Amino acid sequence: MTAIDTASAPVAPALNRTLWVLQILIGVFLIVGSAAPKLFGEANAVQIFEDMGAAPWFRYFIGVVELAGGIGLLVPRLAGAAAVGLALLMVGAAITQAFILDGGALVVTPVLLFALVAFIAWGRRASIRRLVRADQPVPR
Questions:
Q1: Is 44 helix (H, G, I), strand (E, B) or coil?
Q2: How would you classify residue 42: left for phi > 0, otherwise alpha for psi between -120 and 50, otherwise beta?
Q3: How far apart, in whole angstroms, are the C-alpha atoms of residue 60 and residue 41?
Q4: DSSP state of 75
Q5: Tens digit of pLDDT for each residue in 30-61?
Q6: Main-chain phi, psi angles of 74, to 5 degrees
Q7: Sign (positive or negative) of CA dihedral 114, 117, 122, 126
Q8: Domain locations in the chain?
């Protein structure tokens, strides 16, 4: 079996369960705990973006991206791609925390989320490949 064959092979049942637990937990966290405060204008979320010097539209944009990523983690066909997008978002969040907001220990949250969504992206790499190759059916 080549590397290409193993990348499109089904995920082992234990790994699949682990990935689903992570996807659900992170998805709910992103939707409820991260995107909602930004989208509904919670005072702390507004203050963080003001401290960054960002325009209000940017807070809404990040909230929508987090909302879409959180929902994407809950959709089997989109979970891998959503995890890749969220990993990129977390790189930006970690850099922002470290260098713009001088977050110190607060950098740990986006770094940890990056590691978890990168693990999800790795575990769902076959679904990413199927999205890129639309001619292959996606298992249910």
A1: helix
A2: beta
A3: 9
A4: S
A5: 999 999 999 999 999 999 999 999 999 999 99
A6: -90, -5
A7: negative
A8: 12-129
